[in-house]
Specification:
The chain is an alpha/beta fold and about 350 residues long. About 40% of the residues lie in helices and about 20% in strands. The model has no long low-confidence stretch (mean pLDDT about 95). It binds 3-isopropylmalic acid and magnesium ion.
Amino acid sequence: MTKKILILPGDGIGPEITAEAARVLGALGLGFEMETALLGGAAVDATGEPYPEATQKLAAEADAVLLGAVGGPKWDTLPREKRPERGLLSIRKHLNLFANLRPAILYPELANASTLKPEIVSGLDILIVRELTGDIYFGQPLGIRERRGERFGFNTMRYTDTEIRRIGRVAFEAARKRNKKLCSVDKMNVLETTQLWRDVMNELAPEYPDVTLSHMLVDNAAMQLVRAPRQFDVLVTGNMFGDILSDEASMLTGSIGMLPSASLDENDKGLYEPSHGSAPDIAGQDVANPLATILSAAMLLRYTFNEEEAARRVEDAVEKVLAQGFRTGDIFEAGMTKVGTRQMGEAVLAALG
Ligand code: IPM
Ligand code: MG
């Protein structure tokens, strides 16, 4: 079997951080075929489209995609369909990547990076399972119109029971492999769509008797995440609530530069990307933290290629470089060794053993 990985460096710091992750993947000796293509602002500049046909073809052929980040102020004034973010939404939809896994893990070495008290966040290990191809992000109709001299904007929150069931199953399965606690987040006190969400989650529960299912309204979940985040094991929610809660959860760790993500289809083909953005302000300076992208590569090994041992090897190497005191600027503390993007990549390569 060929093992094709498509690398999409994207914009801003994307090229620097994906280069380090690609070096790590290459060093594992697993015979990956790696190709690079354009997505986001870089693609708009070169072809006029954020998700050009050439990239679509390579993405369809690849087993896994490793993405840096897209976007930047340069493209913010373009029409919506030409913006880098549209490239990201399009590739998610095109590849049917409905299951977005966003872990928020606090590394003991980085406990001081969190703005929350250590006793609240120490040992934090949450997995957010976010539905990624439905909801108000993609629901029709949508638009900005004018009637009787007044403009109005509208989007449609929409889920079918099939969509809810398939993401529910991913979440139950994930909880089964962890601490067997699943909290489903909705707004059923106001929104019909999420009443259906809650009903379908309850319908699934008897199939997973070993997993404890609970429900929480999204406003309360936002509060509980900062009040007592360790009550959570796996959270499952829709596209928009998941977007917001995953940013909140990532900040519990204080180091968004450390958090990977995976977006999977029904057959574990996946797109892997760091949870952070393209950070245009520090692009090209060799200062960005490549660890979230390297950890995304570890998720790629685990979920798409079932290479658990190699995934662990990469994750262990990351923990080792932290223990050795190597820090990029975003996670730097006095007494540690400050390194750039490339040096951090090299330290991980050396630690692979
Ligand atoms: C994310 C991002 C995207 C989203 C944007 C860039 C379209 O915020 O991956 O969380 O809203 O899904
Ligand atoms: Mg987001």
